[in-house]
Amino acid sequence: MSGNRTFTMIKPVAVKNGHIGHILNKITDAGFRIVAMKMTKLCVTRAKAFYGVHNDKPFFEDLVKFMTSGPIVAAILEKENAVEDYRKLIGATNPEKAEEGTIRKEFAISMQENAVHGSDSDENAEMESNFFFSFDERYNQDGFEELG
Ligand code: CMP
């Protein structure tokens, strides 16, 4: 992915509260291009797999319950320095610590119900993108499907 792409999810609480459009506006206003996007729902098995790195944490079961409670919007985003810039745009995991103007400051409810997910490294961005999208669901800037 060479540092130009990241993966995001708009989480169930933000979808339920009608914030998909507001969040996507913030993303595109910040200069990200949407390479792939879908609204879908995680089952328990897939939520556990996606958050597998946290399976020993005390909040794991609650996180899985929350992430399977309703639909999410998954997307691959493109911009120079995507992972770092997107993490700046979404703000700290704990919304109380998120800076003014960030997505989490505006739309998160709590540490768990923190509105959006953003990949924390290029490697994870690639893994997480592959978890949700095949190559015929990704489009370059000319609108052509990508070859795997
Ligand atoms: P996310 O960026 O999707 O990555 C892991 C998720 O676990 C995180 O956002 C939060 O939703 C959740 N999380 C992380 N730390 C905590 C915590 N201390 N208590 C509850 N949920 C947490």
Overall description:
With 148 residues, this protein is of the alpha+beta class. The protein has one domain (5-132): Nucleoside diphosphate kinase-like domain (Alpha-Beta Plaits). 37% of the residues lie in helices and 16% in strands. Strands 2-3-1-4 form a four-stranded antiparallel sheet. The radius of gyration is 14 Å and the shape is globular. The mean pLDDT is 96.
List keywords for this structure.
148 residues, alpha+beta, Alpha-Beta Plaits, 4-stranded antiparallel sheet, 37% helix
Count of separate structural domains: 1
CATH fold-level label: Alpha-Beta Plaits
Could you state the order of secondary-structure elements as H and E? Answer: EHHEHHEHHEH
CA-based shape: globular
- SS class: alpha+beta
Oligomer: single chain
What amount of the residues lies in strands?
A: 15-25%
Rounded average pLDDT? 96
